[in-house]
Amino acid sequence: MALQAGIVGLPNVGKSTLFNAVSNSAKAQASNYRFCTIEPNVGQVDVPDERLTKLAELVQPDRIVPTSFEFVDIAGLVKGASKGEGLGNKFLANIREVDAIVHVIRCFEDENILRDEGDINPIADKEIIDTELQLKDMESVEKKIQRVEKMLKAGDAKIKRAHEVLNICLAHLGEGKNIRGLKLEGDDREAIADIFLLTDKPVLYVANVDEKALLTGNKYSEALVKAATEEGAQVIVMNNSIEAQISELESQEDKELFFAEYGLTEPGLNRLIRSTYKLLNLITYFTAGVQEVRAWTIHQGWKAPQAASVIHTDFEKGFIKAEVIAYNDFVNFKTEAACRENGKLRIEGKEYLVHDGDVMHFRFNV
Prior knowledge:
Blueprint: E1 4-8, H1 15-22, E2 41-46, H2 50-59, E3 63-65, E4 68-73, H3 88-96, E5 100-107, H4 122-149, H5 157-174, H6 186-193, E6 203-209, H7 219-230, E7 235-238, H8 240-248, H9 252-262, H10 268-279, E8 282-288, E9 292-299, H11 304-309, H12 313-317, E10 319-325, H13 327-333, H14 336-341, E11 346-348, E12 359-364
Parallel strand pairs: 1-4, 1-5, 3-9, 5-6, 6-7
Antiparallel strand pairs: 2-4, 8-9, 10-11, 10-12
Helix pairs in contact: 1-8, 4-5, 5-6
């Protein structure tokens, strides 16, 4: 399941630095000039999960395999991107292809880092990006309205409702609001599903602060938190340069010394990765055996056969049953055998909704 979160923002706010820190499979060029990134960089990101480590301690497998998803480093957007400014059409198309948005916003002062937008103002920076995405979405909605209007004469109730929803969306965008705020569901969501609106994608914000504000935040990050809270979004406060330095350290001992120096308990990247994982509506289940303890990524709300399919499609086709142990029960009783003896191993069928943290074993026949 190649789900992607796109890292976006204005030029020179620390996007590529963040990407380099968070990605374990790719490195992006990070320089002090506009449009340093043109082609999007894609990197695989392991999801830090203490549960995986704990299961491995109990089972002692030959190998441990974390779950992962992809981050995409997208070039900086500028005012006028929706009209093609600064290669805007290309970059907006890159955003359309991702599943969620990580919006990096500069919350520090440094006269040595180029900035064309004037004084540091995270709210104004946020609004520049929002406006460009909204304008592009208005263009997409208007084109869809034109297509739907040609079908209205047939009198189809579903087409009529789609037309109504599209006009609601257009008015909403015209007020400078993002489509995700409408919380469309069912047939209403289907009305816009084929145009992949940019402002419909879930978003979280990264407040890139200076070293002094790493633990406390500052007036810029506080303003961003206030604005994000009003739209129901999360802000991760971090210093992207420090995170990049931590990511380059090879030994855990060196990292612990680094954490101690800056008063950290873990990298800010861990918080970002976990938050992005939730933003993508993902959960994790585990398989645990002597050969391998492994985390598997699925969507919230998937049933057991769908969950089995991420291991192999044959598991879904020939699904018979799932043996399920809750994570806390596994940790409490320490072995699968002990869980079975104490009635903590359940047999579940095709309608079982998998829970985050389930330890599972699938029975199938093909």
